[in-house]
Each structure stands twice: as C-alpha cells, then as structure tokens.
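Sequence only, no structure available. Ideas?
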Amino acid sequence: MSDGDDFYIYFYTGHKGRFGHEFFRFEIDREGHLKYANNSNYRRDSIIRKNLQMSPTLITVMKKIIEDSEIMKEDDKRWPQRDENGRLQLEIRMNGKSINFETAKISSLADTVNTDDPEGLRVLYYLVQDFKCLILSLISFHFKIKPIA
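Reply:
I predicted one. Tokens follow.
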C-alpha cells in the first residue's frame, strides 16, 4: 500500500485515580481492524475488550469525518499538558499525513474555553465526540446479546 492509502487511528483518554487506571481506548488500522478497550474499576468492573472488522465503506466514513473536522490542520503546541486529571491522545495517519496529539483530558466543552487555543481544542473535542459515538454504536450493535425483535 502507498503512503496515500495508509490509514490509522489511535485514541486514548484516561486517568489514574481512586479506582485505579480508568480509560477508553480504540485503534483502527488500514485494513479496518478495530481494537476497543474500556476499563472502569468503579464497582469492581473489569476491562472490556472487543475486536471487530470494519467495512471499507465505514473506513471511508471515518476518513470523511476526519477531513470535515480539519483536525489535520491543528497543532497541539499551545494545548494544556497532561496532568493529574489525566490525558487525551489522538494519533491519525491518513493520505500521507500524520498527527500525534497529547493534551490534558477534556471532559466537557467547557474545558476548552480558558486555554491558549480554544478553537483547536474545540475541533479536537467535537471529533472525539463523533468518534466515541460511532465506536460505541458499532460495539453495541456488533456485540448485542439479545437481537431486537
């Protein structure tokens, strides 16, 4: 595959707190293999790990979401550094370009306001929300135990 055909996404958000290491993570490679992990030790929950194969059409949708967000034009130099509240990491390789951003965990849109780059962080925040909705929907639909009657 040429660099222009390369596609990869890695996303992580998490922190270490009174319930241990809690995080939400997913990775998608250029063949559409999705690896998902979610760890919350609240009420002694155990880590959830799921793998599935995404269709080429869904990969095209993911690329469109990324392009529409314009995240590839952003720069994380002025974003808050990770701290005791956790971190958020996003790596994307697509169309011969790559980004690898790391910032403090963003829990809500309000966390982006009083920063040195609120617009850039808003772009990141909305892209992350789109990704989370899509990935959680895929996991839910793919691993539904009881089919909808």
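The first strand starts at residue 7 and ends at 17.
Hope that gets you unstuck.
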